[in-house]
Amino acid sequence: MRLPLPVIILTLLLAACTTSPTGQQQLLLFSEQDMAKLGDESFEEIKAKEKLLPEGEVTAYVQCITRPLTDRVGGDWEVRVFQSEDVNAFALPGRHIGVYTGLLTVAQDPDALAAVIGHEIAHVLARHGNARVSTQMATQAGLEVLSAVSGMQSRPGGDDLLAALGLGAQVGILLPFSRQQESEADLLGLKLMADAGFDPEGALRLWRAMGAQQAGSQRPPELLSTHPASQTRLTTLAAALPEARARQAAARAAGRRPSCALL
Question: How far apart are CA 70 and CA 66, in angstroms?
């Protein structure tokens, strides 16, 4: 007996359901290799469009902070600094990290910058981009089924698909993660920076500074364009500080003591 198309699609979607590092349900339809390829291609496009900061004191500072974080998760990560006033940073599948010089005006110490970069790496580790793209594809599949059944015309979702991965805004990298994903990246990033030996208090300093800049400007930082640094976010991070401090102490005891300075 041939199964109806909606049943086949539903079966495939259920098979692709998995859990995130903190136990949240998410749909993952793509392989790590597929996502890495998309991340590789996207990063090359970004580098072609954006103004890369030449090697020097600032790039060395950003790489100094990034290296202890990526050492904890493994792999060879490509790190680039872009000359821009935008207060933003991102990480893409395929192990790519971009930091905008405007971010340094808000993340004014190594621990605060480590909090941003750790947060962005956490999005990749938790496969949030895959989940967003998969959700978009599943939605599109549902529309195609509806179209086939009802004769309605469904709009191709190419641009929406790129936006879901975070490739549709500004230079094509800002991903409007859900509040659940943002909270997960906050907590995973906090653990990551602590395990690397950074002071987890830097995360609270960062989001307070982000909130202050948002309050004083009509245009919020790109990092806050969809999910403000609310009191809820700060409260959640503060509650996680005791464990994070213990992780930092263990990291320091193991000799992980990042020392980065922008002269």
Answer: 6
Cα–Cα distance for residue pair 121/188, rounded to 1 Å: 9
Q: Read off the tokens for 2.
A: 């041939």
CA distance 202 to 151: 55
Let me know if 222 is a catalytic residue: no
Prediction pTM value: 0.77
CA distance 107 to 18: 34
Q: Taking phi first (over 0 means left), then psi (-120 to 50 degrees means alpha), and beta for anything else, what does residue 94 get?
A: left
Q: What does each of the 263 residues of the chain score in pLDDT, given as a tens digit?
A: 444 444 444 444 444 566 666 666 677 778 889 889 989 999 999 999 999 999 999 999 999 999 999 999 998 999 999 999 999 999 999 999 999 999 999 999 999 999 999 999 999 999 888 877 777 766 665 444 434 444 434 444 444 444 444 443 333 333 445 777 888 999 999 999 999 999 999 999 998 988 887 766 655 555 555 554 567 789 999 999 999 999 999 999 999 999 999 87
**CA 93/CA 43 separation, integer angstroms:** 9
Half-sphere CA count of 240, side-chain side, radius 13 A:
27
Active-site residue, selected from the candidate residues 50, 120, 184, 222:
120
